[in-house]
Structures are given as structure tokens and as C-alpha cells.
Protein: YicC-like family, N-terminal region
Amino acid sequence: MVKSMTGYGKQSVEVGETQIHVEIRSVNHRFLDISTKIPRTLLFLEERLKQVVKEQLSRGRIDIFVTIDGEDLFDKKIEVNWKIVDQYVNKLKDLQRRYDLTGDISIDMVSKLDDVFLEKEMENDSDALKMALLKAVKDAVTQLVHMRTNEGSGLVEDLVRRVDQVRSFLSRLHERRPVVIEEYKERIRSRIEEFTAEQIQPDEIKVLQEVALLAEKGDVTEELTRLESHLSQFEEALTLDEPIGRRLDFIVQEMHREVNTIGSKSNDGQVTEMVVNVKSEVEKMKEQVQNVE
Structure:
């Protein structure tokens, strides 16, 4: 099933008196690129959150946002950094002795020194937290995948419509080819008569040789055949139940190459006009394909 790379999902869970909110957004990207914006207290779960996303998504720029409301998930504990305090006190005493300074080393003085106190966070219920957060992320990803699937259906409809449009132009190009050859013939006869003032009858063999030469130079049969093959491959890829974005992108590039070749060989106004229309459709297909997972 074709999926878009654009989607959004959110979920909230409660752990005790705390609410955890999860939002996940995805946009186009050549590969799978996951970015997280979560509280520092939850960083130890970052890789687990990314793994949950990788299980369901294969391409796209994914942003995971986690916010916390309510009481902290962790108790805070203040500890004294005794090693630092010992060094401070010893150095202050050294200063007193060395410079014969007076005064006492007070608690007020020591408490204002850097790194005397350490703040540590103690987990309340780590297992409950992990389960709740991972479930919220899974639910949010499920919503996101659902949105990407719905958008994918719309992309398929648009791409199929454009494939049909390109096929219509290809059919007209095939029909135009014999007309172009006949117009070559008439044009060459007219030029010969114009320059000879109708005094010399055109040599039919030479006229046909010139027509054959021009027809060969402007022959786009192989390009049209390959373009039709690419369209069939494109349609087949749309039915696959796997990520197909890169495959579609490659096929569209090949289609674009064939269209450019047809345009470069054309010296007929109507063919050139049809080529411009085909190129326009292929360009639009290319734009849409950029959003396919």
C-alpha cells in the first residue's frame, strides 16, 4: 500500500500525578531521519523511542516531541560533594597560615562556593514510566501511519490519472508519426519545385530518400516504446505492498530522459507541443513521487 511521507500523530498518558504528551510529525526526506526533543530526565529512553518508530516507518524526516505536565517523574535529592568541600576548606586554611589571616571559615562562606551541592534525580517507578511512554509513542506512530496511508491513497489516484494522461499523449504521438512523414514528402517536393521553377520534375526516388533520411533522424519509436514500458513499471510499482518511493523516483527520471530525447528529435510543431505536455505531466509526477514513502 502506497504511503505518503507526511503525517502527524499524538497521544497522552498518565503516570501517577504526571501527564506525558507525545507528538510525532513526519515530512519528506530521502532516508529515515529521526529527531527527538524530550526532557533531559527521559534521555535514557531516546534510543528505545527511535526503535519504535523504525519498526513502522522506513523513510521521512521524523520529529518526536515529548513534554511533561504535573509532578516530576523523578524525586530530587541534594547531596554534599565532600571531596570538593574538603579541598575548599583545606585551601582556605592554607591561605590563613600563609598570610597570617584572621577570621573563621563559616558555613555561609562554604555554602556559596561552586559545586558544593549536587542535585540528583531518583526514579519513582522506572518500569511504569517506560511502558507508559513507549505505549504513547506506539499509539502516536499508529495515528501517523494511518494519516500517511490516507494521503498515500490520494497520491495514487493523482499519479494514475497522470499516467493515463501521458498514455493519451503517447497514442497521439504514434498517430502523428505517419502524418509527419507524409508532410516531409510534400515539403521536399514543394522546395524542389520552388527552386526549379517547375522546370524539372522531382525525382521520386530522391524525394523518398530524403524523406527516409529525415524520418530516420526524427524516429522516436524506440523512445515511445521505452516510455510505455516505464509507465507499465510505474503502475506495477503502485500495487506493491512495500516502500516504493525510491523506485518510483528512478522510473520517473527514466521517463523524463525519454521525453527529452523525443523533444530533441522533433521538428514538427504538433509533436513538440505534445512533448511539452508530456514533460509537464512527468514533472508533476516527479513532484508527487517525492512524497511517497
